[in-house]
Amino acid sequence: MKITYYGQSCFLFEIGENRILFDPFISPNELASQIDVNDIKADYILLSHGHQDHVHDAEQIANNNKATIVAIHEIATWYGNKGVENTHPMNIGGKVTLPFGTVKMVSAVHSSSLPDGSNGGVAAGFVVETETQTFYFAGDTALTYDMKLIPEQYDLDFALMPIGDNFTMDIHDAMVAADFVQVDTVIGMHYDTFPYIKIDKEQVKEVAKMVEKELILMEIGQTINL
User: Fold this and answer.
1) pTM summary value
2) Which Pfam families match (predicted)?
3) What is the pLDDT of residues 33-79, one digit of tens each?
4) 195 φ, ψ to 5°?
5) Phi/psi zone of residue 54: left (φ > 0), alpha (ψ -120 to 50 degrees), beta?
6) pLDDT at residue 193, rounded to an integer
7) Nearest residue to 8 via CA among 196, 214, 208, 225
8) Extents of the domains making up the chain
């Protein structure tokens, strides 16, 4: 599958003919100034929680593409009330079958509110299972023992995890989380966008190397095949 990084926690996955976008925060992100939101094509937009730095561009991209926003009930309802045509509400532990595979909403330990202060439900992560690969998008989360439940149900190929510390896990906790979910390949996210979450890239790579994990830090706008 093709994966394109748009900064912060925003990734576009191309799975067969389907394009799945996670947590679009692009237009306010100075690090992603070269990205034009109107150029992004998406069929589904998965939102881990309601914070501005994860949902800012969701409405525009959804309306541009008639994409379906998949999110916890409170967030999906909020977007529906704003006029977004296609939404799919979920809740923790639920699973939905979509054209590219299944999406299960799993626990994340974090807060959630929408940009206008509305209730954002609770934060979540996603396990996406396709015909060829299965991956875990952790969202914004602390390290939690709930992660150990995931490999009891899924054989993951890789995971996307926050590593910026302060609001989420740091690299050390993320590497423990990688052990919990039994993956050796981690794509880092939620770092460098704000002063609070600046990281030393060489240092975090060294931490991953010491525990024999592959840490992928993508450049904004970069596309990889995984």
Assistant:
1) 0.97
2) Lactamase_B_2 (PF12706)
3) 999 999 999 999 999 999 999 999 999 999 999 999 999 999 999 99
4) -55, -35
5) alpha
6) 97
7) 196
8) 2-225
Distance (Å, whole) CA 158 – CA 83: 35
Tell me the percentage of the chain whose pLDDT exceeds 90: 100
Instruction: Identify the CA nearest to 138 among candidates 104, 166, 115.
Output: 104
Q: For the chain, what's the residue count?
A: 226
**Which residues, 6+ apart, have CB-to-CB distance to 159 below 8 Å?**
135, 136, 137, 138, 177, 178, 181, 183, 185, 186, 187
Cβ neighbors of 183 (< 8 A, separation 6 or more) are 136, 156, 157, 158, 159
Average pLDDT of the chain is 97
Angle between helix 201-210 and 171-181 (nearest 10) = 40
123 near 137, Cβ under 8 Å? no
